[in-house]
Amino acid sequence: MKPRSVFITISKDITLNIFGYKVRNVNKMKLFRTLISWDNALKTVLAHAKQTEKETVHFDESVDRILAEDIQSPIDSPPFDRAAMDGYAIKGQNSFGATPNNTVLLKRTELAGESAKDVEICEGGYLPIQTGQPMPKGSNAVVMLEYTKESATKLEIYKPVTPGKNVSLKGEDVKKGERVLQEGKVLRAHDLGMLAALGKTRVKVHKRMKVGIFSTGDELSDPKNLAETEKKIADVNSYVLEALVKKIANPYRIGIFRDDYEKIKNAITTSLTLYDALLISGGSSVGKKDFIADAVGDLGVLLFHGVAIRPGEPTGFGIINKKPVFVLPGYPVATISAFEMLVRPFLYAAHGVKEDSRKLFAVTRKKIPSAVGRSDFVRVKLVCSEDEFYANPIRVSGSGILSSMTKSDGFVIIAENREGMEEGEKVEVSVWV
Amino acid sequence: MKPRSVFITISKDITLNIFGYKVRNVNKMKLFRTLISWDNALKTVLAHAKQTEKETVHFDESVDRILAEDIQSPIDSPPFDRAAMDGYAIKGQNSFGATPNNTVLLKRTELAGESAKDVEICEGGYLPIQTGQPMPKGSNAVVMLEYTKESATKLEIYKPVTPGKNVSLKGEDVKKGERVLQEGKVLRAHDLGMLAALGKTRVKVHKRMKVGIFSTGDELSDPKNLAETEKKIADVNSYVLEALVKKIANPYRIGIFRDDYEKIKNAITTSLTLYDALLISGGSSVGKKDFIADAVGDLGVLLFHGVAIRPGEPTGFGIINKKPVFVLPGYPVATISAFEMLVRPFLYAAHGVKEDSRKLFAVTRKKIPSAVGRSDFVRVKLVCSEDEFYANPIRVSGSGILSSMTKSDGFVIIAENREGMEEGEKVEVSVWV
After folding, report:
1. Do the Cβ atoms of A192 and B286 come within 8 Å?
2. Which member of A295, A302, B219, B302 has the lowest number of beta carbons within 10 Å of its beta carbon?
3. Is the distance from CB of A431 to CB of A357 less than 8 angstroms?
């Protein structure tokens, strides 16, 4: 797949990398002349999402990790027929016809050895049993305490049970050799339980990628050091990206770099010796100080810069020393949009995630306008009540509106071939995680 | 609210604690004679969910924590009118009437000081501007690069912009004093971003409760130590509970205790000196070795034991030294059900969670049968395709079927007054987290 993007560097050296598109040099500013479609941008990043290695971890450290092997059960579970209720193990057919007025009477089977497992229940016999205990030989049903009365070694039964009733059969939950968990599954609490139950105490998972994160911009300052009087802008992106990455991979927040071309190039080179991938935000628009895309192109190959998504248009992606580098917008909202539309799919692919569990369907409450030729990232609030399940688009006036994120429950993407969504249309919502 | 449960201890001491209900002593087994409704069980545990204390943390350590204060913005955001696009700051009205054939010509305003902020754009003037920069005095719109041509100090404009176009107005995102985040919100990446943007680098969150977890049962063995030949059952519950609790509070897995009444009592007493709450699983059914409920009643007050939920019926809850103790079933599936139906709501309430973001609505694909008088915990698989969004109930034959969990995406609760769900009915699904 060949990216259809244009990358133009008009710096000191007047390097022009133009893939067959007409460009116009206005006031030494770079221009996004042609935007790559979201679809193509996605294909490009996914083509470079090499799966991370596998590592073996203890099952109880595997929550939220992505399984890197299929798990076949080494055993039948349950390993034997067992009682599913407290009561009495009987031959079900012996209880047929029992009613409160016409009870069936059974005789307690005498225990030969110590355990009920060693005896056989013969015609007309019974033994008390607790949930989870193995069914004695010859028995095939458990009659619940409620429907019985025991006196000494006699059991009166008020209600019949069919053979098999209240019994968990061997292999009923999982059969030996059955695949219980599939490669690519994000492991949750009950999956750990399954691993424990089957005695699979060590599992292969995908190694978490080391992702370096930094922001660039003379105007930025770390919010932790930002004095109230200072006229700088808080660096939001590196913190947001750190929090987003943390759920999938291992983030390393490197800090803020000034708009200094050589320093940024050095920062990229050094970071790539330490991390598997880089997310760099700020300065990826078409202003004069757009050093990041230039630097990525200088150090490696810039595969695209400028994607037909909104917000997030000035997003770029390149490869340096075989390592992926994302160039993300300066605006936090645009960076979050670009993360969800391109970086998350990349990280999911690299970690072998098979299913995106964040997706659900709802009905739009309002018309959502969108331009053809651009994929829109629309923040929505889910409205859940007894009669309704709506996705309510949040009105925004610009890509700087961070409150559109904090007020929302998730987002809807409007494909570039769509002129918006109609009221009442069914839409796929990805909820924030 | 008075619990309607019955607690009967028929041990060595033949202690009978019966709240006005007829009981029948069969073969020295305890019986759940009357089950408390889920609704009442929930009210009971919530009545004892004392909110945890507040603590102040750095904003970047607050992901997934529950906000314990309302956040009002200390500033307008953006703090000044700023460019929302790269281009030229102009008086919008000066561009009126511009067309490609009849361009408007503006003259570059000369910079008096170093910065564009210090100058005023007068009638017919313009200045280049980048996204995010403050709008120069006198300007009210940004004309995008695409619709202009600059040569030396002259700017030709091809397309008019209305005043306000491509400008982010001061306070447009958030107004000073506006509440941006509400107490009880589970903080996500973009909320951190908002905190960073507003300079709120320290926030109050609810302290994570310390939850002690142990399993009981002679038949149990730690899956990590379980030899293949051993005829013991793997302790699944303490690991599952640890993983479930971890997302909300701090779990402490204590281990496995044998079915020894005194040892269990000691374990409870000791644990309660260390932790804020206890989850004890196993031995909570009506078998002969049901020591936990007895022990809770002995050491404190057992508020209920036996809830009309399925699975999870043998769930109990009590208070010892003002600390909550949950008595959970031995079967992992029943324990997960009891966790989701009672423990999670308790933990959410104790941590001040206001909204359960796991909920969505879907349509049932199959009829789901359920008995009146009992709340059913039905595992469902979500089926998402372009035309469908279904919740497909997973068929189970008993509460021991752990694979019903691992195959599902979440669960539906069928209220006790409902005789199941019809095919095509809208149901509320809680997805696994």
Report:
1. no
2. B219
3. no
